[in-house]
Design a protein that fits this description.
mainly alpha; 3 helices; transmembrane helix; 70 residues; 2 strands
Length: 70
C-alpha cells in the first residue's frame, strides 16, 4: 500500500510537474498549461487525497489487528 502511495506521489510531484510538463503543457486547463497547473495547484489536491486514502487504509489495518482507538 505504501509503495503505491509513494508511486502516485512521485508521478504527480516529479513526473507531472517536471518530467511530463512539456507534454502536458499542450493541454490547457482554465487558461493555463496543464503542466504548470499540476506544479502549482493540482499536486496539492492529489496530496490531500493521498492523505485521506492513507488514513482510511491505516484505520482498516488497525481494526484488522484489533489495535484501533475507540
Amino acid at each position: 500500500m505504501l509503495t503505491k502511495i509513494l508511486i502516485v506521489w512521485f508521478l504527480v510531484s516529479f513526473g507531472a510537474g517536471i518530467l511530463f510538463a512539456p507534454a502536458l503543457n499542450s493541454i490547457h486547463l482554465g487558461g493555463y498549461p496543464l503542466g504548470f497547473w499540476f506544479a502549482q495547484q493540482g499536486a496539492m489536491y492529489v496530496f490531500i487525497a493521498l492523505i485521506f486514502y492513507y488514513k482510511k487504509k491505516m484505520g482498516e489495518i488497525d481494526r484488522q489487528f484489533d489495535v484501533h482507538e475507540e
